[in-house]
Amino acid sequence: MMKGAHQWGATNHQPQLNNKMKKRNVLLSLLVILALPGLASAQYKLMIKGSDTLGAKLVPQLAEAYKEAGNDVSFEITAEGSSTCFTNLLAGTSELGMSSRGHKDKEADKFTAAGKELVQHVAAWDMIAVIVNEACPVDDLSLEQIEGIFTGDITDWSEVGGPAGEISAYTRNTSSGTYKTFQELAMNKRDYGSNTQKMAGNEQIAQEVGTNPNGIGYVGLAYTKAEGIKCLSVDGNEVDPAKVADYPVSRQLYYYSVGQPEGEAGKFLAWATSAAAAGKVVERVGFIPLKK
Amino acid sequence: MDSGKQRRFAKRGKGFLGLTRADAIRYFFGGNASLAIFILLLICVFLFKEAAGFLPGHHAGLTKWRRSGQEFVDILNVAVDGHTRLGSALNIGYFAELNATSKAEQQQLFSYRAVLQRVKGTVRGPAGRLKKLLKEFTEAGEKLAEAEQDLAGADLDPARQASLRAALPGYRAVIAEVEPRIAMLEERIAEGVAEALAGDEVWEGQNLVADDREAVAEAICDQFEAAEQKHPWVAGLEDFVREKKAERTPQLAGFKEAVTAFRNAIRPVKDLISPLREAASELKQQAIAAESAPKRKAALLAGAEATNDLAERARKLAAAEAVVVAAPPYDEVAEGFYAETAAFEAVVADLRKEIDAAVEALPATGELADPSARENLERFRNSLADYRESLDRAVARAKDWRHDEPYPQVKSFLVFLIGKEWITNSSWHDFYGLMPLFTGSLLISMIALVVSVPFALGAAIYVNQMASRREQNLIKPAIEFIQAIPSVVLGFFGIMVLGTLLRDVSQVSWLAWVPGFPLQERLNILNAGLLLAFMAVPTIFTLCEDALNNVPQAYASGALALGATRMQTILRIIVPTALSGIIAAVLLGFGRIIGETMVVLLVAGGKIQIPDFSKGIGVVGEAAHTMTGIIAQETGEVDRGSLHWRALFMVGLVLFSISLAVNWGAQIILRRFQRHGT
Fold this sequence. Notes:
The complex is a heterodimer of chains A (292) and B (678).
Chain A: H1 2-11, H2 19-40, E1 44-50, H3 52-55, H4 58-68, E2 73-79, H5 82-91, E3 96-99, H6 105-113, E4 118-133, E5 140-141, H7 143-151, E6 168-172, H8 177-186, E7 197-199, H9 202-211, E8 215-220, E9 229-231, E10 233-234, E11 250-258, H10 263-274, H11 276-285
Parallel strand pairs in A: 1-2, 1-3, 5-10, 6-7, 6-8
Antiparallel strand pairs in A: 3-11, 4-8, 4-9, 4-11
Helix pairs in contact in A: 1-2, 4-11, 10-11
Chain B: H1 3-13, H2 21-52, H3 54-67, H4 70-98, H5 103-122, H6 124-152, H7 158-198, H8 210-225, H9 232-251, H10 253-264, H11 267-306, H12 310-322, H13 330-361, H14 371-400, H15 409-418, E1 422-423, E2 431-432, H16 435-466, H17 469-481, H18 487-506, H19 525-549, H20 553-561, H21 566-577, H22 579-594, H23 598-603, H24 627-634, H25 643-677
Antiparallel strand pairs in B: 1-2
Helix pairs in contact in B: 2-25, 3-15, 4-10, 4-11, 4-14, 5-8, 5-9, 6-7, 7-8, 10-13, 11-12, 11-13, 13-14, 16-19, 16-22, 17-19, 18-19, 19-22, 20-21, 22-25, 24-25
């Protein structure tokens, strides 16, 4: 590149140019080259941070669809857990936050203290599917049985109608919003048993359950199509998006903003929560769009 | 360096701050060295500073746990926990006995499902395509039928008729095109299924006799041909199992009743504890709220300052006014707890009676047909005495419990150091007990050492003493190259390859005698230990080789001159002389392993529980968690400065101390023995 710039400088001027002039030309042309990408990225950059439940697939795909719909915005999406949604919003390092749980009072306090207002927007419904290995003959568990299994009260499949065999219960790790949500929705807020195994993510749980005939775990709806697993019905309620309100282990997902979002962030949010195309993306990723 | 050169060097370099170039270089290098020491000190200070707040915070937390009555509830809850475990053993025993008469059939069904799943896995690609084609086919068929019906029906307007007619060939073409492809795919799937069933892979771990295997294979083949209905063989088995269970149920009615009576006996205790639990929980919430109230108030006031909106400011000021900064009513609530001790004693006495009655009604162990049922019942009977004792203790402790007794500082430290529970993000109380993590780390490291030391030492002796130069030039770099493999890559290898391989191998029937086999988990202590052993080999190998190299040549020459064979020289002279270096190498290898994070995080299985050592060597099949793993897993999520955060730093500090001690030990050993060496 250096060389090219040099030649360009040389051919556009008289051959008797002294060395100093040449040097300046080289510098100028370098500057132009460096400035070009800067000019090209003048489009608006929307920063969205928070939950990996939303940030792993849903929001990136929504962003793609949003851009395809003719909006000239670029996105920076970081998914590191619901807690980071609030810390980043507060620090001003993101415009929209994603969270798979509602905010805590403590978190809202911090915004109040900084003279800001935390605003919640419902993004979609999520169902937490309880999954077992395909080879497992059990098809339905009651909420009480699920509580027993994940708190360590029930340790053998024969206690819930399966063949004898020690249960391997796989859970998310403590940083995940799903960990806490499942505890609240399915375990009566009791602590996980010390015999449960904490996995890094949905995929890993699906993988372990899919290869262990005595495994049980829970994953987001998007991951229920993994190999070798099947979903259990809970208290007779199938994992069916149309009946999400009846299924005991379901929850809402949220976007957060500081104040009512305006400008590009507001436009994107309005589109993501109401447009039909966005609803299709939500469905494709495995969540359930809000009913209009 | 000769003096003329030195002078020239010095003359040229004079200029910057009056330093010669040589001086500048000297100070630069010296500066680098001291910077390293400075940064090390900085890390130590940072570690100690962040961890320092843990002990007081932990103590305060435990004090709150006591004062709010959570400790009292946990004391009472011992009765429930022990009872749940016993009831679980009974229940498992009952179901084992219930299933005893149809055990073989259930096993067949289980094998059928497991093998079916594996077979499905082998033909997933074509099956997916077939599904898509079938959908196209039915859609086209439906549209065609619809259009034909419309055309056959009464008077349509001509334009619509024409358009329908025009569409017909399209549908027919789709059908004609798709049909052979469907047939082809179906054939391919059938072939794939037959091939998979003929191979051994899908049958691994299923102990089926030849006849059963044939039946399963046939049922699976049929299942692929007609997916909607159950194969009669499967349906027959299922009916058989159901029938046998129904037949057995009345026979075991007495057993069932005793089990139910036993399990229901705990109800009154639970009913007693449940309101206490809520009261304690609420009190603790109040205590936490009261603690943060001044901060909350300050936050609201600061918020009011910051806003320009008058209404908003007024609202915030009012909210700040409403924050109560008052001590929670510890004494008042505690009175309620004290009042319940007598009631607890009474319900426990009732519980004893009911348990005794239930145990009377249980069938004798000898009467049971199923070995697993006998085993569980035996386990139940053996643990019963312990449970009765724990009830006594619980009653005594409940009577002695005082909410205002200060929590001993030493005890709060011990709760961390030898506590058996690491429970975080809890809605009851967070416990930070190091033991499960410590034992996990230690066990994995020990396995890694046991595996890696023979390999590394053997390789070092061979390379140093026996190998030809060409071999040396090949082996040394190859082993040292292992160090260059990123540990996350090894972790993935552990999940995807080694874990699956270990489990498959463990399910081979003639290996069942190996303790811990068959493995249920892919991610376990053994897997992590083996990977870490692999990672430790280069460290131990290199250091051992150095130690062997340091043995003076005269020793070997002397031994050989006195008529010792090559082997005798190596084993009797060289290795013993280098022993100090070898021990140091092993220690440093241990230091390397115990600090490794990524592999154990991915592969150890993430189970925060002290491994069950009653299984003997079989314990290596269990999942575990480690000190390094927990830091990596939980640091990202915790609030900076919270107790949990500090607890993680404490774990870091423990790790740091272990590494320090190990390195220090290695240095001492080296220094002590080197005197003999030279």
